[in-house]
């Protein structure tokens, strides 16, 4: 039994506890005592359950428990290794001794807890990797939308400047997305270091288990059921290794996708530069056209000013002609009234002529004196009407000449 002290204390100090150097330092003084005296130093009935070396270490650090080397010195000096015990004070409580099976149960429970914690961390890592894949898909969709908008900008001419501003904003958003990807890559590196640390912890636990395999072989008769649990833990460790390899593969795939996204971003920037150059050329062409249009507008304005002067002159002449037309209309009205009078006088002249003819016929039958008197009366009536006839004909000739002049100017 005394030969089991060194392997058991080394196994407990390296595999169960998270700080192996402190635990080994704590357990080292027990190596100087045989096995029964070793178990007599443990606390008895601390609360509801049995405690391990971690609890003893906490008591030692809180000065509730006397340090083991100080408790062991009197016994060394007196040579009492098997006969005496080191009294451990813990609120005056004492109980039964713990067996090696109890310590192995504590070791098994802590290993199970560590494996469960590792499984939880691996699940968290897988969820984060899935989230990264979703973010990459969103960024791909955003880049596809950007490329479609760039193709639309090529076909539109009127709204190119506004679209370019929108493209710059979207490119800035894409750059922000790249920054997010960089942060994601940094997070992936942190996760990789976390996985490496966990793997190191697993390796350390496996090394401790390998060192304890010899002792486990000796205790396998009494601990057969716990051996099956150890094989299950080894299978879980293999599964963890496979999961780690898959996570590394996913990280490499993410890095490759990030590289593809960077190449696409460079292509989008080059397309943007080409579009800006084309827009500059088109803007210069439009500016030259605008300058030519301005020159033509100035020429047209000069022509319009000249035509305006001529138009004013024509308007003045038109006003004069309209005044003349009004005067001529008044004169025509007067002439028409006079023509009506002339028609009446002509009718009267016809009547006179008819009367003269009758008188001539009668004169043929009468004397020469009567014929002479009749002719004199007719001549007097005709001499009175000739000035009116001449004036009316002159007015009609003036109206005809004025109408001819106006018609020629309008043509």
TrEMBL record:
<feature type="transmembrane region" description="Helical">
    <location>
        <begin position="386"/>
        <end position="407"/>
    </location>
</feature>
<keyword id="KW-0472">Membrane</keyword>
<dbReference type="InterPro" id="IPR000533">
    <property type="entry name" value="Tropomyosin"/>
</dbReference>
<protein>
    <recommendedName>
        <fullName>Peroxisomal and mitochondrial division factor 2-like</fullName>
    </recommendedName>
</protein>
<keyword id="KW-0175">Coiled coil</keyword>
<keyword id="KW-1133">Transmembrane helix</keyword>
<keyword id="KW-0812">Transmembrane</keyword>
<feature type="coiled-coil region">
    <location>
        <begin position="108"/>
        <end position="381"/>
    </location>
</feature>
């Amino acid at each position: 039994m005394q030969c089991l002290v060194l392997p058991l204390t080394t196994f407990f100090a390296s595999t169960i506890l998270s700080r192996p150097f402190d635990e080994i330092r704590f357990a080292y003084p027990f190596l100087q005592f045989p096995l029964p005296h070793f178990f007599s130093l443990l606390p008895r009935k601390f609360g509801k359950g049995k405690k391990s070396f971690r609890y003893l270490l906490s008591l030692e650090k809180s000065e509730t428990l006397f340090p083991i080397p100080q408790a062991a010195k009197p016994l060394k000096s007196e040579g009492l290794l098997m006969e005496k015990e080191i009294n451990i004070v813990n609120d005056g409580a004492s109980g039964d001794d713990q067996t090696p099976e109890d310590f192995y149960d504590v070791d098994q429970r802590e290993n199970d807890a560590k494996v469960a914690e590792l499984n939880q961390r691996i699940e968290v890592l897988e969820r984060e990797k899935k989230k990264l894949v979703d973010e990459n898909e969103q960024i791909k969709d955003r880049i596809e939308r950007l490329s479609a908008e760039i193709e639309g900008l090529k076909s539109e001419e009127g709204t190119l400047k506004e679209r370019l501003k929108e493209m710059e904003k979207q490119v800035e958003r894409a750059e922000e997305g790249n920054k997010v990807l960089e942060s994601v890559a940094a997070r992936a590196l942190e996760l990789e270091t976390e996985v490496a640390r966990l793997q190191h912890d697993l390796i350390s636990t496996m090394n401790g288990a390998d060192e304890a395999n010899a002792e486990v072989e000796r205790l396998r008769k009494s601990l057969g059921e716990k051996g099956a649990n150890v094989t299950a833990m080894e299978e879980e460790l293999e599964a963890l290794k496979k999961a780690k390899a898959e996570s590394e593969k996913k990280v490499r795939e993410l890095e490759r996708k990030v590289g593809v996204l960077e190449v696409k971003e460079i292509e989008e920037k080059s397309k943007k530069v080409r579009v800006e150059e084309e827009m500059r050329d088109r803007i210069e062409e439009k500016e030259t056209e605008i300058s030519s249009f301005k020159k033509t507008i100035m020429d047209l304005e000069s022509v319009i000013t000249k035509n305006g002067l001529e138009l004013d002159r024509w308007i003045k002449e038109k006003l004069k002609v309209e005044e003349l037309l009004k005067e001529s209309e008044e004169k025509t009205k007067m002439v028409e009234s006079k023509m009506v009078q002339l028609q009446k006088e002509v009718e009267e002249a016809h009547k006179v002529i008819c009367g003269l003819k009758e008188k001539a016929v009668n004169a043929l039958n009468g004397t020469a004196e009567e014929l002479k008197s009749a002719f004199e009366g007719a001549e007097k009536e005709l001499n009175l009407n000739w000035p009116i006839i001449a004036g009316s004909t002159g007015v009609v000739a003036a109206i005809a000449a004025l109408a001819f002049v106006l018609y020629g100017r309008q043509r």
